[in-house]
Amino acid sequence: MSLPNLIQLVLFLVVVGVLVKPLGGYMQRCFNRDNTFLDPLLIPIEKAIYRLGGVDEKRQMNAREYSIAFLLFSFAGTLLLYGLLRFQPHFPYFDKSVFTQPITPDLAMNVAVSFATTSTWQPYSGEATVSYWTQLVGLAGQNFLAGAAGLAVGIAFIRGLAQGQQTDRLGNFWVDVVRSILWVLLPASLFGSLLLVAQGVPMNFLPYTKATTLEGTVQVIAQGPVAAIEFIKNLGTNGGGFFNANGAHPFENPNALTNFVEMLAIAVLPAALTNTFGRMVGNVRHGWVLFWAMTVLFVAGYFLTVSAEQRGNVAMIAAAHITSNVDAGQSGGNMEGKEARFGIGATALTSTVTSNCATGSTNAMPDSFTPLGGMIPLINMLLGEITFGGLGTGIYSIIMLVIIGLFVAGLMVGRTPQYLGRNLGASEMKIVMLYTLVSPAAILLLTALACDTQAGLAGLATNKGPHGFTEILFAYTSCFANNGQSFGGLNANLPFYNITTAIAMMMGRYALAIPALALAERFARQQRRPATLGTLPIDNLQFGILLLSAAIIVVGLGYLPALALGPLVEHLIQSN
Asked: Is it the case that residue 334 has pLDDT exceeding 90?
């Protein structure tokens, strides 16, 4: 690895690490309704929203009520966005001469589900399909609303584990959503969007520019309210691009500074939730162990991606009698599908952040990565959002893995496993196992269905064999992880994929959030027990190693055969 790449990685981790404590404390105060510096401005707005919506802010919900509110909120957002997409020709800023890709009913359904689940899976070209009005009101609106809903569920999960007395109350979904938007997402988005505008990201409503190239063809160039959408798509861990090229487009991501800032926007809040968790459950050291375990996995993924891309395809390089070494005349390695202004280092950082944090805001084409380089973001998503993860979803994903590790450790020493003073009994472990098995069941079954049907194989427009299999596996993994990035060689705008990827997105959102809330209620109902000499410490290096081991074992058991059929065998083929 080159020195500049190493400096960039260290600087990124330092900034994230420095912001974890203050932001974690701020979110704890915000959702505990303690004083914050924004209260004088926002509390009157908050109360007005409750009056208009008829919300009783003092009413607490159990897991069932919280889940129903979450589902109804998501369904309403999906339905409204579907209507907006279908009827966008009747809204402002629609020019039929430039929006050449029609929005069919199945595509509109897929996009509506995608943005309502924070997946922002995009089987369409943004600048050729969606108008400024739809982008700003529909898609950016869902970036705020769906991101806030995910954060609300994460906070409710933490509350259940943090309860000091026996109860089934997890908070009020409507209050948590309003506070997520007003106190967290909106202020950060305003600041971040202004910063992007200062760096040259467009923020206007100008008509598309039509320019004549040197070859005499006409090129249509979109501008629009890009800055208003760009920051919240990252902050809310959504990732849907204004442009088809997403973070590789110079209007979305013009330089190294914007790339760095946008990656921080993705990672900082999910990372800070480890500190919020530690504060709320009364064990800040445990929160830091979670953060450092995430960081170890993050660094490992980054180094593996950089190594694979910097080496390039050794067999092809040797056959061509060329060198891929870094020198003054070349960047070396595999630069296919990457932007020259970012290079391999910044591309690997972005790939690691986006694949770990459920935000598919890529600045390169993963389809052009080497087999091993493309396998790393796939594995990051298969880990299940445990490395920082999505906004809210990341914290309950890592805790589920913590519980698996503690349960296995308890079985090994013959003791009833405990976590945060609560026993991990049969009912708790059934919920955790259900949560764990949903992922391989959805991803592998849908991948098998696509590989075994003509409708699924019809999407392989470019590649067959192991690479084509990886494209399909990557697509369903990305959708289930509510990530949204794709390998790019798969033609996913087909009825088969619009329907099946929508199923994967809904399962990845709701079939995980609802068991998490149910588990939180189970914890809240239990009486907290004091730690004994037999209680496994959860705030030391030994526990961190146990957590990392559990992550590797769970992914290996579930997905190693699929990885062997795709990127691993492709690597072996290309190496010969």
From this structure: no
